[in-house]
Here is the input.
Amino acid sequence: MKWTEDQQKAIDSRHGNFLVSAGAGSGKTAVLTERIKQIVLKGQKEKEENVPLSEREGAAINEILVLTFSNKAAAEMKSRIRESLFKAFKSGELKEDLSPLVEASDITTFDSYFYSLVRKYHQHLGLSKDVTIVEGNFLSLKAREFLDEIFDDLYAKRDSDFLALISRFAFKDDEEIRENVLSLLLSSSILENPVQFLDSLAIDYFSPGYFEKRKKEWIAYQQKEIDSLIEEANNLGDSECAAFLLSFLTPFSDIQDPDALFKAANTDFLAHSSPYKDGRFRLLKEGDKQNEKFHYLDFEDYAAARAISARIKSLFSSFKGIGSFEDNLALQKKNIPYIKEYAFLAKKLWEKLLSYKKEKNVYDFSDIAFLARKVLEDESIREKIRHSYKYVMVDEYQDTSDLQEAFLRKVSHDNLFAVGDMKQSIYRFRYANPAIFLEKFERYSKGEDGTLITLNVNYRSARNVIEDINGFFEETMSKERGSINYDESQRLLFGNAKTFGQNRSASYETEKILYTPKKGESKEEIEAELIARDIEDKVGRYIVTTKNEKRVADYKDFVILCRSKKCFQTLLKVFGEHKIPFAPSAETDLSGEDTFLLFRRFLRLSLAYGKDEIEEKHSYLSIQRSYLFEKRKDKELIDEVQSGSYKKSAFWKEFGSLRLRLTKMAPSEAVETLLSYYPFYKNLPYIGRLVDNYEKIRTFLASAKVADRLGMSYLEFCSYFLEQEKRKTEEKVSLPPQSENAVRAMSIHVSKGLEFPIVYLASNYPNLFKNIPKETSWNVSKDFGLLLPTFTDKGNVPNLFSRLYVANEKQEALNEEMRILYVGATRAIDKLIYLSPLYDEKETLPVSRHLLEIKVDPDGKLLDASLKDLSSYRDFFFVSRKAFPSFKSLSPKRTPKKETKGREVPLLKTPKLCSIDIKGQELLTNRASKNEMVSLDYAKISYGLKFHKILQNVPFVSLKKPDLSYLGEGKHKVETLLALPFFQERKGYKEFHEYGFFDKEKNLHGSIDLLLVSENECDIIDFKSKEVDDPSYRNQLASYKEYVERVFKRKTRTYLLSIGSSSINELK
Here is the structure.
């Protein structure tokens, strides 16, 4: 392989510290692998030549420490190095095969390496060797138990400091204070020295130096707000209004006084100078102040000026009650006794938990990291580890946490080689601190303490993808939006001309699917429908590139990247309706799954049996209605429950005996007994998705085995799960894909490090400031310490320290959101496709009208002020449309296959925003290949989706006449369908809606709209809006039929239910 000059520099550099800033698709893993290989080759050669150890540049594989963040990345790295060393042996570069040594090398994750240190030095830590890692959920439940004990003890002793805390901050009960103690413990546990942090809360964060630092930040915060307004005012151009706004803001252009805006807000300065009043802009004429005669302005940029005026008013109003800096200082100091008590409670809880963990020899990953750090406190052990590695390397360095960085400082000695990309730091929720990478980037770029190497050539994507990504992020990403300027040092360079050619190609143009949802329509469903139709147009026609070869696109070439996994269920439903194989790739929350809910009912019944009659009845009813038992009439079951006769049932008596046996078993044995006693496994085919459900049961069993380790009884295990339900804690499981050849969907976080031919970036994302804490709430951080609410005679009032903290949190959230967008966009190889709703002028969608006034500076950079109101991921898409009017746009309307056979689907030019009818139901665009208009009627899509939903819940063969009054105008259509002789003849059959299945033998998965089962036969009914006569469709239903016949061992027929014609016909 031919390396670029920068890549070769990264491979060959040896002495000192190095930071490799590697852009997306720049081959950083290949470079890291080659570097390790060359070091090993050099080390072997030097060994053979008897070069003195002190003079060697090479090293043995066990003298290199390589750390990364996922088991998958570590395994891939080992595989590449093993293969590389084996090739070197086969080619004669190595005299002996060193590849077998790779498996035992320290190429691993941070977590795994920390665990190995703890096990190796367990005696030094006073632990037994069989240290076990458990889920944090189990330990968090124990933490709550210990906290209850601590609180009960302090209440009993009537501890004055504790009662003072309760008196000050407990309004309804002390539950919020308990939660705060747990949060404080969690926040401290991720730091290098948790106890030291807790001890410092009432000291270091009240020092003169700390307050001086905050004073400077407070001045800078005010200046930033004013500068943003000045920038907006300048943006109005040479107008009377702009001049007035600037005359109002200019006195604050160089703030030195920390109380500048507070003083201005509390005088009549604002009242007599406001440029906007009563819906109009005005200037006070000289001599007319008392008469309040207004001079109304006539200017072109009315909306923008009004927005600036509103922001001026809002800014100064927000400072009115904030108080002076000295006032805030005094209020903070009043909280010192309460901060000390919070720290005391957290330390007390820490000690109790540590003692319990040591006794049981169980720890979570944060504990293991803490213990590994303790190992390194011993100087002799630390020096031994430091000198055992000639090179220390870190992949994905932008994701390191404070604790991991502290560890690296202890084990490295001017031999750190770190690889990463600041623009791809997206794991703040896992305590990643991108400032660590950024600080080294800035120092090394100046030649201080290390060398910076930049890899910017992208070998992954087509030129179109690269240039469009550059164009967007050059205008949007900056230190204020992403933490780093997207300049020449960050710009991606196209490097795969061999595959894609030198120039842009129409085949790889970035596409945008734009739509206007009506009020009440689901944007998720509309986007899912649009993506499904677009995939149907492209699969089997569009040409994609894989491993430098071109071929037609298959389902596995498409991926949908979402900001969160909440949209997966919608995608699953819509893709099922289109018969498109679909494989969401993510951890699934078990807590809402049928199998999990059923099992939880057994746990509830185990606790309630003979003690809680209300819970007994609920659990009995749920279990009897489940797939474990023959279907019974609801009236019959309800009568049993109401009369109490359920206690005479065979099930009740059997369960009472079984429960006695379960209480004498360990949790895992009890769970296995329940699974075998009742037909869980036997009846799983009735609910479909067998592989998924087996995996869910396996995960449940794994939890029970952890409970065994903790010494829990069966009933304690039951209590644990019900406590998790109460606190809405997710129980996650990673499910296998349903098919290798399937459209994939995943969160952007999961997609990091991966690449796909065609990428859809869905746009329905939550407000990124949704989880930002309030200024008047309880907050804790390493930078700000513990911030408690401040009280005056006016109650709980905002304080400037909390405002700075919240502003910082908002800034970091915005920074990471920009980086998340970058990660998503850079996954595409051939084509990147955005989806986005259009914003209308009446703001029926939740976005500020101010976004319609996006402006750029002379260098083409979007003005900070123009992006001031960005509040969600979706808003970035809006900006991208304004920034790139030349982007291609794909019409949402599906192109008939017969019209496009043998050629690529034509692309559509984006019309200017003003030419789009955003008030109606249709989106109109111009076709590039033909000057014709195409449209998509969203009302029809929405109606089709809603009617399909209705049919999913209609009991087609119920013996009891269903109540359809809730259907409104859809009632007549459903009644017509139910009256068909086909359904009348099958009254009393078992019916399964949306029956999902996975056929392992045939590597097939699917979803049957309606499955009817009797003792002798099965009927597969597929819903369609009209008659379909397509051989591939018939073949698909034939495969469904083959599966059902094999599983149910009954004669099976397939039918098509035409909603449009209200008819049902057998498919033969």
User: Anything to note?
Assistant: Residues 274-300, 840-853, 881-942 have pLDDT under 50 and may be disordered. The longest strand covers residues 828-837. The first helix runs from residue 5 to 12. The two ends are 57 Å apart (CA to CA).
